[in-house]
Amino acid sequence: MDKNSDKDGYAVDQVEEARTTVSDEVEEYTDRKARKIIHKIDRRLLVTIGFMYCVSLIDRTNVSFAAIAGLANDLVLTGNRYSIVTLAFFPSYIIFQPTSTILVRKLGPRIHISVITAAWGVIMLGMGFVKTFGEFTALRVIIGILEAGFFPSAVYLLSTWYTRYELGRRYGLFYVIGSVTSAFSGLLAFGFIHLEGAGGLRGWRWIFIIEGIITILLGIAGYWLLVDFPDSNRKTWKFLSEKERAWVVRRVNADRGDVEAPEFKIRTFLAAGLDWRVWAYGLIAFGSTTMSYALAFFLPIILNQNLGYDVGTSQALVAPPYAFAGIFMYAVGWLGDRYRMRGPIIVINMVVALIGLPILGWHPDPRIRYLGAFLLVAGANSNVPASLAYQATNIRGQWKRAFASATWVGFGGIGGIAGSLVFREQDKPEYKPGLWACIAVSLMNIIVVGICSISYYIDNKKADRGEKELEADDEGYQPGFRYTY
Predict the structure, then answer these.
(1) What topology does CATH give the domain 31-231+266-464?
(2) Which stretches within 339-474 are classed as H helix?
(3) Rounded to two decimals, what is the model's pTM?
(4) Distances (CA, A) of 380 to 150, 386, 412
(5) Which of 15, 212, 325, 349 could cross-link with 31 by S-S, CB 3.0 to 4.6 Å?
(6) pLDDT digits (tens, 9 = 90+) for 361-376
(7) C-alpha 459, offset from chain centre
(8) CA angle, residues 149, 226, 235, in degrees to nearest 5
């Protein structure tokens, strides 16, 4: 647990956080008013970003639903071609990560995020008209370039609005809205393929066409719905008064002292890479997304080929495990914020995944194996917001935060490549090597968290003895800052 508590204690609930972090000038806000301001931010920011993340996940993973609905046959995705199509998204997605958190600061979230969302919606729509494997793969690469700017910008934006011990739940809610809602894309896809023959098009093509149109519309709406950074001077504050915005800035500054970003310097930005723990967070992201992407790309196929369900049933059965994962995700996020811990939450998630993996892979009863999918999906996907909160809580400084967000998502993209490859065509229908790979990355995450926790303990003890200050950089010290285990 974090050691940076004052003698009176630092209450975890939002109301008490408001009391202890606001300045004298804004202290007249009552508990009720403080809660209202935070909930207003939640409704405007979390809901908007969450639904944009939903279409992001749908648009990068809907290829799995299209594949079993005729795409694989029509575009001749034989041999390793399906794996190539799924991983084609990720190299460009990884390469263009670092620039996104710089651009979002320069352009502002409203312009940056809404424009790239509408743009990849146009590409998605175009995927409904491709004729060859090469055309489809090329469009997946372009979508990777555009989506590279969304997730790191989104998590960076969220981290600037909330205190460290509000982020676990917020990242959880953000991911819940996105991943759980996107899980029902299987039901949408099942409906869209019944448009077979409409307009002279195959049913799988309508999956891309309709979902592309939805993405374009949401990108356009995002220009009006998204908000800017709390320290921004851009006039986008109709949902908060200037006094309320000042209150947000002061409470976050009191928590970690880095609301305002200093002038961008490439040296400061890249210097964050000298902290080995930034790369450890990335390694955890890699392990987490290897599993989450593998499930996104292959769970419908596993249900179809391994467990023996027909196409429609396989698409429909994807949704319940993700719905359960949403409940589980929010519960562990609340637990982490309530008790001010981060590493143990990641370990809990990985243990749940490690229980689900052998059940899904080796139990003789298909119904019990499907139960294993619930545990695996819950553990794997809950680790995405949990690991985001882990790194966000233990970092201060805007440009280090921006670098760490980009690094986390970049490693997450590498996990996407691995997730595209672990369940190979030659391993069907059992896919045992893929299951073993997921077990390996789960164990790796537990080990990395253990190493980080030991280092936090050592550094916190040195800080307690006055031997060092924590998280020093060009943006200064935050007196009393301590790492969170």
Answers:
(1) Growth Hormone; Chain: A; (1.20.1250)
(2) 343-362, 366-393, 398-421, 432-464
(3) 0.78
(4) 21, 10, 13
(5) 15
(6) 888 888 898 999 999 9
(7) 28
(8) 115
